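ugh ok so i messed up the first submission bc i forgot one of the chains. this is the corrected input, ALL of the components this time, i swear. 370 residues overall. if the numbers dont match what u have on ur side tell me asap before i send this to the collaborators (the ones from the other lab, u know who)
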Amino acid sequence: MKALLSALLTLTLALPVAAGAADYTVQPTASTLGFAGTFQGAGFNGTFGKWTAAISYDAAHLATSKFDVNVDLVSAKTGDKDRDTALPGADFFNIAKFPQAHFVTTGFRQVGAQVIADGNLTLHGVTKPVTLNVTFKPQGTGAVLDVAGTVKRLDFGVGGGDYADTSVIAADVKVIAHLQLAAK
Amino acid sequence: MSLRSDNRRWGSVARFFHWITALAIIGNGIFGLLMDLAHGPMQKINWLALHKSIGLTVLALFLLRVLWRLIDRRPPDEPGPHWQQLAAHAVHGVLYVLIVAIPLSGWWFNSVSGKPLQWFKLFNLPSLAAKNENIADTVLAVHEYLFWFLVAVLVVHVGAALKHHVFDKDNVLRRMLPFGRPRSDL
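and heres the new structure output, hopefully the right one now
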């Protein structure tokens, strides 16, 4: 009897957790992961063509929600020949040594109406905390997820040496993602 | 020291525009030819940014100079053969066209290459044309050929000025010199 009670108790306690955040599959053709920087006073936009994201989210169960994103840095394109030649090189992403970037959330916070995701970004061999603004809109059985955050490129040694001059290449790089999600 | 030109001499404003433009053109021309000596891509980016900023300054100075010419009466031609006066005016006309055309062709090249254009890191200027890398090499060639044409015209311009100064010993160069005085005995 005692064992049964404790088993029931465990089950009821565990249920809300198990029924917490829902898992989603990213619809790649309708989803984008991009970034925006500033060079010589002019903004430019870039996109990553190859990345994967494991999304588990529920606005009512933020504690069990999780984003886990892997990005193939070689797939970065900005529409400028010189820049796209420089980005994979040793001075920037150094993809020969660090082919991927990885972001994983460590927790979510509700600040007013805004949900903020705290996480760790590993880029160019450096792991540092990065926060993202999260906008999650359920849509049928799936959802649309928009995230935006700012990465300080020099924190990760991206564009070091001569390229560290932030009067030419701005320090802040915005990261923007638009994900079309389907229920798993 | 008069701001405006008089019958004997170019005014100090006209002389300022002449010599600052001369310095900028010669300096920026040599600088442009030395671009490939930059150590690494970032230095080249910075050198090119400086080259563009100086070129834009030449263009801006030219616009101010033309405005000033509308206000300021230029000194009458020095006495001399009519053909020399005509030739001098023709050379000045070509120089004015090149002072505009060379920076504009550089701006055009920058635009079709899809690069930003910033004036001494202070503000950005718009593109003159849509990005089109297919014609970028041709536009760069135009920029360079215009420069070499300028060099040829400058040889005539400077050569004639020196000829007047050294052989004819007249006031043609003297009245444009930054600190010299026109000869009063002529």
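quick check: Residues 2-18 of chain A form the longest helix (17 residues). that seems consistent at least. Residues 20-183 of chain A form a domain with the Lipocalin fold (CATH 2.40.128.110).
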